[in-house]
Structures are given as structure tokens and as C-alpha cells.
Amino acid sequence: MAALMLTRRFHRNAVLCSSYNLRTDLSTSSHGIDGPDSRLPVLIVGAGPVGLVLSILLTKLGVKCAVLEKSCGFSRHPQAHFINNRSMEVFRKLNGLADEILRHQPPVDLWRKFVYCTSLTGQVLGSVDHMQPKDFDKILKHIGFHVRRDGFLNSDDVKLAEQQILLGHECTSITTENSVTVTASITREGKRAEKKFHCDFLIGTDGASSTVRKLVGIDMSGEHDLQKLISIHFTSQDLGQYLMNERPGMLFFIFNTEAIGVLVAHDLMQGEFVLQVPFYPPQQRFEDFSSRMCEKIIFSLVGRELADVNVLDVKPWVMHAEVAQAFLASNNRVILAGDAAHRFPPAGGFGMNTGIQDAHNLAWKLASVLRGIAPPSILSTYETERRQIALFNTDLSVQNFKAAMEVPAALGLDPSIATSVHRTINQKLGSILPSDLQRAIFNGIFSIGRMQLSGFILNENNPLGSSRLSKLREIFEEGKSLQLQFPAEDLGFRYYKGALLSDGESFSSTQEKPTGRRRDYVPSSDPGSRLPHTNIQLLSHSKEETCSTLDLVSANNVEFLLIISAIEESYQLAQAAFKVAQEFQLPLKVCIMWKDKATYAVLSSSERLLSPWKNFVDVVDAKTCPGLPSWWDLCQMTNKGAILVRPDEHVAWRTKSGIEGDPVSELKKVFSAILRLDS
Fold it and tell me: pLDDT band for position 98 (50/70/90)?
């Protein structure tokens, strides 16, 4: 299985560049894409985590691509810091990236808790441990891009090679006819120039304020402007050492009479933090958050001054819960992924992880179109599948965000009241009173509100304080506060419509509503589900190797996987599948799941029964303990069935009891429906 990981420095625009040693000589093509009529198959706008992961997935599938990024350098301001199980499974196949992340992960005991306190050195109001004992059972060259910062200022320098990241190139216009033309502007040494790039498909992974999304006229829908915050990136080894020794945790929710904030511990050992504090413009101005003011806020929340605090960056941001009304535009030639397609509250860490899975879903479909395996209509299944997940994760994130607000509400600081007060000041007084007087009124009201957190009120001897602390304990004990782990959603998300085909059983077109509470993952082989993991041994190799069923799916080819058992009817089904795949020019691998090694040793008939086809593998369930359910039991099937798996490890189709009638005709219908050949 993949691991549940927290990285130390998983920075926006540097997710892979910080983990990988980017080498300037790694471009596999020495020639560029020259002239107005030459074009790349795929151009990606936005070199954040999603864009870079997509570029690597496409490169592994043999698709030439490059990346444009408007920033002139990679951001050092940490944002995403939590990688869920499914994303780690994707990273396991990216040439060592998962191992690189593991090397950067701090010890679990340093980040498994959320701590609620009056200051980092003061009273602890409660804590939540997000690692259950069973979670530990799940704990399981480089591809590089040439990074260019020089731009295209000279008219004779018009080369754009595959596997390049072009920094400082801002997308300014998009036109589409038979291909896509992107105009990008660049400024170097005070000179501004424009360059046109030509591609078959343009992918917008350029973040929540996506320029690509705006240029193609796609609107967002959902809840806008849930909260405004200031993000303060700072370091302090003094604070890191204190917390590591006295109060380790990932998130610290701090409430006192002077300030309120959430501290994200990105790296306790190195003392790297991001502090999020509420922001209420126009009474508060971004310009007011100078380094000195930020230090004062930090000291108030820590409970003492720090000798080595160093404020590195300060930026405002707005929390939304919105999903793009469409993920595709311009006859499916312009596609959105990641934050460009959906933006959630950070509660639960779904933002980047959902984007990584967008890329995983999209990569094999783009490769299928560009290699002539599937028509462009298959790209519509990307929107069908991923928009459904985005809407679900948006609802889940909002529920989790609202759960986070239960804690300050229990302490007498209802965030909805604060929002109402701020709105009233803006609407009733904004046009009447000067800004200085508005600011004074605002500060006075909010200072009075924070007095609810004084030691005089918030103690067991005060009836009001005792009642509030009791309510707080109830929230923590019943799991009603902000949650971190959602196993059922991390691994158990399922596509209900798209590049898949129902088996006629256990299939519903509707999705369960999110509960906001932790639910355990239940393996399923239902069409649209992620292929269940189990450890297997490869038998048909000279050396018996142990791996995961997920490892049977190739990361280097648009290859489908058919899993069968070693019975005659299933071999006949596999023969038919090979014939259909050959006709469709679609790579196919067959996996024969044997009952045990002894049976394989006696029969070992796959080579004879599948001849002349060679792309198959014999495996056996590598049970660690006797009495565990078999592979077919795990899939809630008998060994008379078969499972067809897509290149992104999701089940495309299954049959529980074989195929009645001509298997070739039936499988033609199956592959035609999955690949949208009948569109």
C-alpha cells in the first residue's frame, strides 16, 4: 500500500523540483519545435504540483510536452503539506519520487496531532491524534525537465523543446482552430516580448486564479469567499526545538485575547512554519502586515518572544469552495486540472491530492488520443469522472471546515458572528465614517470578543468557562472537530460514469453524500473503483518477486490489464481479449491469479493456453497470515470472474461469472464503450 505522508517542504511550484535534482541536460530531444507550423502534442500552463506531475506522467507514456510558468522562480512559500494514500500510490510509479518524499518525511510522532491551546507555551485546551493503530499497517532514474529562465527575446530564438519548463512566461491569449495557439508574454531586462506556442492540447494547471480558465470563459460555481487570511511564512529553530520536545504536532489552533491563528508546522526539526491569521479588509490592510507586525503576532501566539524568528514571506489569500462549470473547452482541446478546475478549503488536504488524481486520470486518456487508440471524445470522460469527484470533495472540505469552526464557537467566538459584524461595519459604516474610525471600531469590537478567551473566563472555576471547556472536550471526544484522515475518500473514491462499463450488478449511478466524519476504506472491484491492493508473488519469473496488484498496471504504456483465475473458461476469455486488443491496436496484459504455488507447480499451463500471446504473468496471492480472505474474496467475486483494469488502476469492467455467448463480440462492445469508439 501507499503511505500517508507529510513532507517537510512540499512547496507550491516546487513539488517535484525540490524533490528531484533537475538537470539541464536531460531533454531527450536535441531539436526544438520550430516555426509557426510546428507544435507540441501537449502544452501545460502552470508549473505547480499538478502541472509537473502531469508532465512526468505524460513523458512516461511517450507524450511530448512542455510547461509554461508565469513566475520567474519556484515559490518557497509552503502551501500543501499533506499527501494522502492515493497520491503516494501515484508517486510510487514516478521513478523514485515516493522514496524521495519518504526521505523528507519527519517522524510520525512529530506531526500526528492537532493541538488546541491559548498559546504555544500556555494552556492546552485539547488535542486530536489523527493516526489510529491500523493506519500504521498501510505504510509501505529520476525524470527531469530542463528549466529555462532566459526566455525568447530574440526573434531567431524560437525553439521550444519537449521536457522544458519555461519560467517567466505568462499566458495572455488562447486561440483554437485545428490546434491551439498560446500567446505568452515575457519581460527580461526591462524588455517585453511576446511568443506564440502551438500545441494539440493545452492543459491549464495554473491555480485557483487560472488565466487559462478565464481566457476560455469557464465560470466557477459554489461558495465564494468563505474566509480571508494572511499567510506568514517564517522560521525559528528556537520554536521548532521547543515544540519538538514539549508539544509536537502538525497544526496548532491558538486562541487568546491578543490574537487568533493556526500554525502549520512544516518542519519542526528545521523550525519552518506557516501561520494563518484571519484578515478583514478594508479595516485591515495587507500593507499593515509588515515583518515587524508579523513578529508581534507570532510572539502573541507563541506566548513569548523568539530570538531567532525570521519572517520570509507574507501573502494574502481567500478561501473558496468552488468547482469549474466545465473542465473542457474549445472542442476538448483546452482542459483544466487541479486548482484551476476546483478550489476547496484546505480542511482535509484535498486540494493538491485531488489535482494529482486529476493528472493521473487525464494522462492516459491524452496519450490514448495522441496515439490513435481512442477518439478525442474519450476526453469528455475526464470531465465526467473528475468533476463528480471535485464536487464531492468540495462538499467534504466545506463540512470539515465547518467542523473546525465548532471549536472557536464553543469558546464563545462564533466565526459567523465575526463575519456578520465585519459585514455590518462595511455595509452600514463604510460609506459614512473615515477609514481610521472604522478601523478603531473594528479593533474595539474584536478586542472585546477576544476577551472571551481570558483566563478569568476560561477556567473550571468560572461556570461559563467550565461549560465551554466541557463542550470543547465533547467535540474532541466525539470526533466533531477538524479531521485529517478520510480513508474511504482517499482510496475508495469511485467513478460512476465515464470510461467504464457496468457489469449489471452492484452498480448505482448515484454517489453517497459526504458525512464529514472518518469512514474506513472498503476494497471493491465495482466498475469505477480503484483496483484493490493485495500482495502477490510473480511465479512465471525466474526469481519469485513480491509486489502489489497495483504494480501489475504499467506506468510506461497505455496498457489495460485483465485479471483472471487459472480455469479453462477464463483462459478462453483472455484469448478473446488479446484478439480484440490486437484489432484495436491496444496494449493488453493478462494476469493469471493462481490458487496457490502447489497448483501452479503441477499445472503451469498459461503459456500453452494463451499461445501465441506472450504478454501475461502468473501470480499467487502472497498471504501473510493463514485465514486471510483470498484475492477474489477481497474483490467480492468468485474465481469464475474477470476484472479489466484501466491504465490509471481503476476498474473499467468486470464479469462475475464469465461471458455467455461469443466472448470476442462481447469484448468488442466492452472496449468500444470504454474507449468511446462508439461515440
Answer: confident
Sequence letter at residue 363? A
**What DSSP state is assigned to residue 526?**
S
Task: Tell me the DSSP string of 60-83.
Answer: HTT--EEEEESSSS---SB---EE
Q: Which residue, chain included where needed, has cell 496457490? A: 596
Q: Which residues pair with 262 in a beta bridge?
A: 253, 276
Q: Do residues 382 and 365 touch, judged by C-beta distance below 8 A?
A: yes
C-alpha cell at 154: 530574440
Bridge pairing between strands 170-176 and 220-235: unpaired
Cα–Cα dist 35/171, whole Å: 19
Q: What angle separates helix 435-450 from helix 415-424, to the nearest 10 degrees?
A: 160
Please tell me the pTM assigned to this model. 0.86
Per residue in 55-91, pLDDT (tens digit) is 999 999 999 999 999 887 666 655 656 788 898 899 9
**pLDDT (tens digit, 9 = 90+) per residue, 327-369?**
999 999 999 999 999 998 887 778 889 999 999 999 999 999 9
Peptide bond connecting 248 to the previous residue in cis, omega within 30 degrees of 0? no
**Nearest in space to 315 (alpha carbons), one of 197, 212, 201, 228:** 228
Three-class DSSP category at 232: strand
SS3 call for 545: strand
Main-chain phi, psi angles of 294, to 5 degrees: -65, -40
Amino acid at 665: S
Peptide bond into 612 cis (omega under 30): yes
Q: Which H/E stretch holds residue 230?
A: strand 220-235
Contact 150, 169 (CB under 8 A): no
Q: In the chain, what are the domains?
A: 223-319+403-477 (3.30.70.2450), 535-675 (3.40.30.10)
- Tens digit of pLDDT for each residue in 473-527? 998 888 888 787 788 888 889 999 999 998 766 545 556 777 767 788 899 999 9
CA dihedral 500, 506, 511, 515 (to 10 degrees): -140
Beta bridge partners of 273: 234, 265
Tell me if 527 sits within 8 A of 503, measured CB to CB: yes
Torsion of CA 646, 210, 284, 250, to 10 degrees: 20
